[in-house]
Design a protein that fits this description.
The complex is a heterodimer of chains A (325) and B (375).
Chain A (H helix, E strand, L loop, with lengths): L2 E3 H15 L3 E5 L15 H5 L4 E3 L4 H13 L3 E5 L10 H15 L6 E6 L14 H5 L5 E3 L4 H13 L4 E6 L7 E3 L13 E4 L4 E5 L2 H17 L3 E5 L2 E3 L3 H11 L2 E8 L4 H13 L8 E5 L8 H7 L3 H13 L1
Parallel strand pairs in A: 2-3, 2-4, 4-5, 5-7, 6-7, 10-11, 10-13, 13-14
Antiparallel strand pairs in A: 1-8, 6-12, 9-11
Helix pairs in contact in A: 1-6, 3-4, 7-11, 8-9
Chain B lengths: L7 H5 L13 H26 L14 H9 L8 E3 L5 H6 L4 H8 L33 H14 L6 E6 L6 H12 L4 E7 L2 E2 L2 E2 L11 H6 L2 E6 L3 H16 L5 E6 L19 H8 L2 H13 L3 H24 L31 H4 L12
Parallel strand pairs in B: 1-2, 2-3, 3-7, 6-7
Antiparallel strand pairs in B: 4-5
Helix pairs in contact in B: 2-3, 2-11, 2-12, 3-9, 5-12, 6-7
The complex binds thiamine diphosphate.
Chain lengths: 325, 375
Amino acid sequence: MSEITYLEAIREGLAEEMERDANVFCLGEDIGAYGGAFKVTEGLQSRFGEARVIDTPISEAGIIGAAAGAAHMGLRPVCEMQFIDFISCGYDMLTNYVATARYRAMLPCPMVVRGPSGGYVRGGPFHSQNPEAAFLHTPGLKIVYPATASDAKGLIKAAIRDEDCVLFFEHKYLYRRIKETMPEGDHITPIGKARTAREGKDVSIITYAATVWKSLEAAEQLEREDGLSVEVIDLRSLAPMDDDAIVATVRKTNRVLIVHEDTRTGGVAGEITARINELAFEWLDAPILRVTAADVPLPYSPPLEDYVLPQTNDIVKAVRRLAAY
Amino acid sequence: MNKAPHESAARAETSNGATARGGLGREQLLDLYYYMRLTRSLEERLANLYRQTKVVGGLFRSLGQEADAVGSAYALDRSKGDILSPLIRNLGSMLVQGARPVEIIKQYMAKGDSPTRGRELNIHYGDLVRGFIGQISQLGDMVPVMAGVTLSFRMRGEDRVGLVYVGDGATSTGAFHEGINFAAVQRCPLVVVVENNGYAYSTPLSKQTAAKQMIDKAIGYGVASEQADGNDVVATYEATKRAVDRARAGGGVTLVELITYRRKGHAEHDNQSYVPAGEIERWATTNDPIDRFARVLSSDHGVAASELEAIDARITAEIDSATDIADASPMPEPADALVGIYADPPAEKPLWFREGVRAAVEVNERPSSWGTHDV
Ligand SMILES: Cc1ncc(C[n+]2csc(CCOP(=O)(O)OP(=O)(O)O)c2C)c(N)n1
């Protein structure tokens, strides 16, 4: 088996699920013959036909709403947002309609909303967003954000099979930069389970998506330069969140740094901090620290983007502070 | 920097040149030529800079659409304070309102002294004084915004008009619908220009709407409509001018459909694999808006080739100097990223792991014992 990229892994997962279940179909802007802005769905229309890979008008609320209706009727829609930044145009549909459907009306919405997310690519304020925190606050939606190619495949397959709506954020910086050999067979990554990306005993970094790689880089540097043993937890799923894995790593290292690319205030790190506070306070030897983006819209110019987004050096600095505490 | 030539428009009214269709004098016709040529030459320069990797992000072209942008914007009255909101194919419209090449090049190069100080990309910027409001990427959003801008004109009894551009694709958004409907009901002095260029990224018009033509939508909204050949700059001007006059006279919203063609891909990286063979070439050879207009200028208005060449030379000189200035401009200072989220406070504080700021755990007082019995 040869290595495939994170992007190809998503495509492979989509294709396998479409093959397995005739109810699975894709809809989105320019996803058909063109294969999508990033080519994630390339080849799917010629393989599965125009009825199952649908080019839609530029109508995010329409795409998400129509997916919900189709899902009620037993289909399994996978919606693409051309950039995840445009999910905000369907926010009402997702948070008011989709997220509440099962609870208020016993109407299941087994559907996926996926799209290229994240920065580090000079995309400016509307092509770089990480909107996960806005949805983490909405009961009824599941959220996954893979950092590796095999998880990208395993999670898209799990998301499609899930009985509820799953937001599948894919990091565009990782699309073609990482490669991996896929596990054999029907590879599923369970939703709600974190992954230990690196074992360690001195300090834990809890993170997800592209900053997993920055954290691993920092961990290597810290081992080399400081002899520190840093554990890196890749959450993979934000909703539901793997409390057991979080508590286990806190009990192991007693020092926690949370890293994410999204802005700071009201971000996912605040939620993780609160959970640790409630579940494992006695196991802490230091305050929980956060490395996140600054609280500004993400600017375009390289010196500005580099300044706003978390960098490996920031993580190194924060871990050193924790280790010295 | 050259003086913005639209200032000559006012003089053209009193010049003795033969009046063309739309009541345009010779100087105004040459203005139209100037802006179309400036748009194209500036984009060609940007394409060069893109190939040299001096453009930081993507590059968006309006090749073949210069007439629709320039002719429609030219129908506004800058002396009255009319305002437009451009989209990604409306570099020409912004130039008509007074945007200058040096600003555009600095924007693309993400320079610190660009109009947005490096925060936003390409032509996403505005200037209320010169009469244009910067777009955001989310398509359709500017329609309700311009409904509000023109609502303010009406509320204050001002003699001003607003114009907002949307692509054929952007008419599929909820924001477009809500914005035009709001403006229609409020009888805002707003012109909604739909640039029908055949494609939205790779999606042809037939997959964007089941309407036979964009102006059919006007009926449903209860607004007036105009339709014109968007590659005929004077026809574009005339149709938009009627809409502008109607808005100024209290006649409310007009939906103007300009029919044109997008000869380049969505952005520079797009290989246009979805375009039927020969289609682009056909538009390029038989329906280029600048070629067409140059022929009209020569045959109907006696404009000599040398006169157009002189304009071209002036444009090249301006773009050359703009490129030099933009190239020499500094990139932004990193910490400028924290300035200006709110009026108050004027800047965010740097996060502790930057700028040597100490962590809260160091700054805040710690109790001498474990805290439990401290007072
Ligand atoms: C709400 C929203 N959804 C998706 C996009 C991604 N996108 C950018 S441009 C574009 C096509 C625009 O087509 P059209 O409105 O016809 O304008 P044109 O590019 O043809 O001038 C798309 C889908 C976006 N910018 N905004």
